[in-house]
Automatic annotation (TrEMBL):
The keyword Iron-sulfur does not apply. The keyword Secreted does not apply. SUPFAM superfamilies: Acyl-CoA N-acyltransferases (Nat) (SSF55729). Its EC number is 2.3.1.-. It comes from Ornithinibacillus xuwenensis. InterPro entries: Acyl_CoA_acyltransferase, GNAT_dom. This is GNAT family N-acetyltransferase.
């Protein structure tokens, strides 16, 4: 194992360090949007920690207090893990980052840590590594979403809303609901817009600005991205333009 270093990002080192995702394309709009988003979130208590091996990025974790989270989950006094990713596997780096978050939650006197997983997409963290680190699955939501929690005591469990179908009924026209929490959202949006243009469909984009709007509008627990057409969820993660065309045509 090489030399390991944990580097928390903040307002002072963000420009020099940069976020982990899309780091190879720093001029992409999604990358600059993500860095701008981070700048606005640090004052809310968001933590973004990069794990470096011999000076090279090996992984990262992003988490924040639940009241500022980009995930659609209710609860009080929890930290919510947005993202966890390692590109060097087999060395326990994911567990090291999770334990960093758990320790931080203890120091902040939180009641525990929450994460949302989904085995059907790589856009959420893997469930297995959290189970390995003593998280417990307590609830499920449509489209394969799972709610896991690591609790320090007997505080009330976090929970999902239960009105997912009702939310879809408010979107008849093609609508993209998104935040800037993920740098890949811009690419995902562009692919859907290209598909819509090819089919002559007009698309509306809703850029969510507040957690209140997120909790009210998001079609899934994932929160940061959803595509709805004719009251049907098209996707909550990036599609190729070809895949988006096929899904939209099926509803025309």
């Amino acid at each position: 194992m090489g030399t390991i270093e944990m580097i928390p990002l903040d307002e002072e080192n963000l420009e020099s360090q940069g976020c982990y995702c899309l780091r190879s394309r720093p001029n992409e709009k999604g990358y600059t949007d993500k860095n701008n988003w981070l700048t606005d979130r640090f004052s809310e208590g968001l933590k973004y920690v990069k794990l470096m091996e011999d000076g090279k990025p090996a992984g990262f974790i992003e988490y924040t207090p639940i009241e500022y989270s980009s995930r659609v989950v209710y609860g009080d006094n929890y930290l919510v893990i947005h993202c966890l990713w390692v590109n060097i596997t087999g060395k326990g780096y994911a567990s090291k980052l999770i334990k960093q978050c758990i320790q931080d939650a203890k120091e902040q006197n939180k009641d525990g840590v929450i994460v949302i997983t989904n085995p059907e997409t790589s856009w959420t963290p893997s469930k297995e590594v959290f189970i390995k680190n003593n998280f417990i699955e307590i609830e499920q939501a449509p489209y394969g979403f799972e709610l896991l929690v690591y609790k320090f005591g007997d505080s009330p469990n976090p929970y999902f809303p239960n009105d997912w179908e009702e939310r879809l009924m408010t979107f008849e026209s093609l609508t993209i609901v998104r935040t800037r929490q993920c740098p890949f959202v811009e690419i995902a949006t562009d692919n859907v817009l290209k598909a819509a243009n090819a089919l002559g469909i007009t698309a509306e984009i809703i850029d969510i600005q507040t957690r209140e709007d997120l909790l009210r509008l998001s079609p899934t627990p994932y929160g940061i991205y959803g595509v709805i057409y004719k009251n049907t969820l098209i996707s909550y993660h990036r599609l190729t333009t070809h895949s988006a065309v096929k899904r939209l045509k099926a509803l025309m």
